[in-house]
Amino acid sequence: MGSPRSIDPRRMVRIADNTFEASEARTILFQDALCRTARPGQYLMIWVPGIDEIPLSLSMIDHNGLSAVTVKRVGKGTEALCGMAGGEYIGVRGPYGNWFNLTKGRVAIVGGGTGLAPLLPLAEALLELGSEIYFIAGGEKKEDILFLQKISALLTAPKHSLIVTTEDGSYGRQGTAPDGFKDVLKEHELDMVYSCGPEPMMRKIFDLTEEQGLQIQVCMERIIRCSLGLCGSCVIGRFRVCKDGLILHSEQLREVTDEFGRFERGFDGRKTHFN
Ligand SMILES: Cc1cc2nc3c(=O)[nH]c(=O)nc-3n(C[C@H](O)[C@H](O)[C@H](O)COP(=O)(O)OP(=O)(O)OC[C@H]3O[C@@H](n4cnc5c(N)ncnc54)[C@H](O)[C@@H]3O)c2cc1C
Ligand code: FES
Fold first, then answer.
1. Position 7 pLDDT exceeds 80
2. How sure is the predictor about 28, in pLDDT bands with cuts at 50, 70 and 90?
3. How much distance in Å is there from the Cα of 160 to the middle of ligand 2?
4. Do the Cβ atoms of 200 and 222 come closer than 8 Å?
5. What is the per-residue pLDDT for 210?
6. Radius of gyration from C-alpha coordinates of the chain
7. Model pTM?
């Protein structure tokens, strides 16, 4: 994995645009010198003035100077950010965390929900490297799938494939992202697997890679508050996800199999079973 850099200057950044992305999800575009140097898999702490500071993955890095986060409304912070218009200001800290190690070869990218956000810049970087990509994007229904058109437009060459899974069968293959991944495993040999999404989903993907002797890099999302390795809210095993991750690889995940995808920590630090 790439090494984390220590960047903590807080700055106010002007929103350049706020565009529709998918059901309940908006992409917030802005210009920021530090974000132009970010790597796929890194995240920001975004302060929504007067509301809260929330962690969000970079979903676009330096497209003609613009970077972006893609945010789904789930509570008051995300609701307020989704409602902000071009010309308004947000606070930004970061980019934080390590980043995906890019593999030139045959790779599977498996994402679900807002976990697709860091996988879009990853796919762009892997394409640039000449990798062959099997992209599996999952959601409950078609409207939930982020970046459907953007990913399709990236993977036009015949060597790549995009498999969309929906649980209600409204688009693509009916089932879950791990079902789509199993289909890929039946037909292709892989050099690397990347995943981001709900932790129980990533656990299923990890277990499949272990059965097949494959390497995986997952982008973990736990409760992140300080983002500096200080508060402990993001702990899994001996790792502080905010600094040691977000990207954890197979060897690290083997150390936390009792917890990974099985237990989460709440805001009070207590462990509870994933639903
Ligand atoms: C590293 C990381 C990257 C993320 N990237 C994205 C992204 O690209 N797009 C996206 O839509 N969402 C992303 N999230 C989730 C996003 O941070 C939460 O949805 C957001 O913080 C919720 O804030 P709220 O005020 O709207 O909701 P609240 O009402 O405060 O919380 C709703 C739920 O969101 C989760 N949540 C709240 N605060 C945090 C927090 N500080 N850290 C983690 N989870 C929290 C909890 O499950 C909580 O129950 C990411 C989370 C992490 C940890
Ligand atoms: S968020 Fe505080 S230690 Fe990771």
1. no
2. very high
3. 37
4. no
5. 98
6. 18
7. 0.96
